[in-house]
Amino acid sequence: MKPDDPLLRILACPLDKGPLALIAEEGVLYNPRLRRRYPILDGVPQLLPTSGEQVSPEEHERLLSRMQAAGGAHGAAGASEGGARP
To answer: Cβ distance 69 to 35 under 8 Å?
Structure first.
């Protein structure tokens, strides 16, 4: 999956139905609001609620940095909400 893939516009987190950010280098879609990442296996996003994994606060910050370095990846609008969580 690439950052300009039109599929990214319609993909949503299965839990909060919000947008996801592609972190292509790691092959994941990330929801910064819930701090959950979903794998992309063989080009197919795994978007079942059980496929996602909760990330630590440190991993969350690292993924946010990746999103910002990518120039505000799709879904980054929710990043400020995710950053405010305890």
So the answer is: no
Taking the C-alpha atoms of residue 24 and residue 10, their distance in angstroms, rounded to an integer, is 17
Identify whether the C-beta of residue 22 lies closer than 8 Å to the C-beta of residue 8: yes
- Position of tokens 């910002």? 68
Torsions phi, psi of 80, nearest 5? -65, -35
Cβ atoms within 10 Å, residue 28:
23
Residue 73's closest CA among 62, 65, 83?
A: 65
What integer is the mean pLDDT of 66-86? 55
Please give the Cα distance from 27 to 34 (Å, whole number). Answer: 18
Question: Is this model's pTM higher than 0.70 or not?
Answer: yes
Dihedrals phi, psi of 40, to nearest 5 degrees: -115, 115
Mapped onto helix, strand or coil, the DSSP state of residue 48 is coil
What b/e readout covers 70-86, taking b as 16+ CB neighbours within 10 angstroms? beebbbbebbeebeeee
